[in-house]
Amino acid sequence: MAKTILVVEDYVDTRDLMKYLLEGCGYNVVEAVDGQQAVESVKEKFPDLILMDLSLPVMDGLTATQIIRKVDGGGKLPIIAVTAYGNSYYRRAIEAGCDDLINKPLDFDKLQPVLEQYLAP
Questions:
Q1: Does residue 88 register a pLDDT over 90?
Q2: Of 36, 86, 105, 116, which one has the greatest count of Cβ atoms within 10 A?
Q3: Strand-strand pairing, 100-103 and 79-83
Q4: 27 assigned to some structural domain
């Protein structure tokens, strides 16, 4: 059974590209455009992994991560921060509850090993 990845990204072009790449690798993709939708998606669909943009409307990715960590089962859910802010946000992302950070623009060759690491059986 294919693993499900929640892509949380407010820019439609970036979200569509991520979805295209992930589905091409056999993953199911659920989408959210802001942190609030991400929290609701976790409660309703409980994905296997989240790719969380940090700069989002309505609720930012760091706040959404902190809330998701309190949702039943959310403490073990892998959350990978995806940001254009670079490694300067690494510490903030980890403190908020993210497991790792990947920089934008997204390099799928760097993303794939991270996905395999966190989605390994």
A1: no
A2: 36
A3: parallel
A4: yes
Query: Alpha helix locations (H) across the chain?
Result: 12-24, 35-45, 61-68, 90-96, 108-119
pTM over the 0.90 mark: yes
Residue 121 inside a domain? The answer is: no
> Does 114 score more than 90 pLDDT?
yes
For residues 8 and 53, the answer to whether their CB atoms sit within 8 Å is yes
Count other C-beta atoms under 10 Å from residue 57's C-beta. Answer: 10
Domain carrying residue 16: 4-115
Query: Residue 30: is its pLDDT beyond 90?
Result: yes
| CA atoms of 59 and 39, how far apart (whole Å) | 10
Angle formed at CA 22 by CA 21 and CA 27, multiple of 5 degrees:
150
* Residue 22 burial class via C-beta count within 10 angstroms: exposed 0-12, middle 13-18, buried 19 and up: buried
Cβ contact 80:102 at 8 Å = yes
CATH for 63: 3.40.50.2300
Residue 40: inside a domain: yes
